[in-house]
């Protein structure tokens, strides 16, 4: 028996526990990580930051046959009221992109510092607009081989859209069974980019489990999607009309494209050389344009190559920047610089130890894996949206208005195809007296919104990188209606974002008017305490 286990047994004997109870304790202590039980470890200190002022847990949960798939996660407890605040399961797009990006570069509580990098361990600071101010979030590395998630057998590395949805459902059930105080929390599933396909499948799988009375029952309320890939690859046909509207190609070329291709720019017939040549001309015109945000400069990339017209598949990195101690980078100028920092940070031994990463499971952490054994067996998730909204689940769909990868007009198109009635028509929403975007509310609890200035669809929420306040407010308003529907006396809230006003008690109504000119975060915390 190891010394640590002996000390544990002796300490229990000191307090008079019976021998049988000690035997059970001993058996549980004897189990190793290979038993694939739910593992949860508290992270008190992170290299590059220091002692954490918020609760961060990491761990693994085994799913699939024989629990051969070990999914790694980061859990951040809400800094407001974790007992009643929403719980969000976030799945970063890709597929194959780590949720560490959400934790440290998007809407999580930390972000890498804007500083000249000299090869030392990157440093981090607090994100004042973290979504964890008002919600608890599980950042999940999904599917298998993403981030620090791994498989114990080579066969278990093979997965697909439907199996990924099942794995996420198994994960959430086991996590909630191990964190029973969150069983009553309103639960939302969120994701961006390719997770626009993954998330509806996950939500449908959870809903099916609830219908079958599978325990634990999950208090599922809805889902949140940013620039979601919904119909693959047909949705990419909207890139050309979007580019024309943004002034990236001439009227003459646009007319030629319309004539030669008739709206089909992805699955071009082999004999239609005129269309192929026109599309090739368009692609050359877009070389040098940042397709994640057309107003931003092109940066030295460490991300995946562009998605191919044959399908939403990612390739290996064109080159991977080896961040060695001798390397010196200029000050952070764009999202790619933060991505480089994340590679160096996540591969540091002290960071891995602090995060409780199992040794020998992942040799080199890669922000986005291009070598997944992944089968794309779901191409269109519009039927999922139809079914989920019919069941009453809420959905927030938002798009950056300068994203060329998945243009907002493509998202508008498939939402229109649902044929839902319009509750509140196209209108602006405001942040700090400025137009932040436009929004439209439909029946069946669906809200669509555009976000001005910037957004990333390929791998992350670039809007959060450039202006986190906008998305934080949009996120807050979507969640804030949850508690206001049971007030005895209802007063219309003057929705400062332009999204359909919610109602609240007179006390909250007065508080809103008082807090309207205050800092948004203070206002948010006040509302969600109601």
TrEMBL record:
Superkingdom field: Eukaryota
> Which UniProt keywords are listed?
Membrane, Transmembrane, Transmembrane helix
Q: Which InterPro entries does the protein's record reference?
A: AB_hydrolase_fold, Peptidase_S10
Q: Which GO terms describe its biological process?
A: proteolysis; secondary metabolic process
Q: List, alphabetically, the Pfam families matched.
A: Peptidase_S10
Name the Gene Ontology molecular function terms of this record: acyltransferase activity, transferring groups other than amino-acyl groups; serine-type carboxypeptidase activity
What transmembrane ranges does the database entry give? 7-29, 453-476
Name the protein family.
Belongs to the peptidase S10 family.
Protein known as: Serine carboxypeptidase-like 1
Q: What species was this sequence derived from?
A: Capsicum baccatum
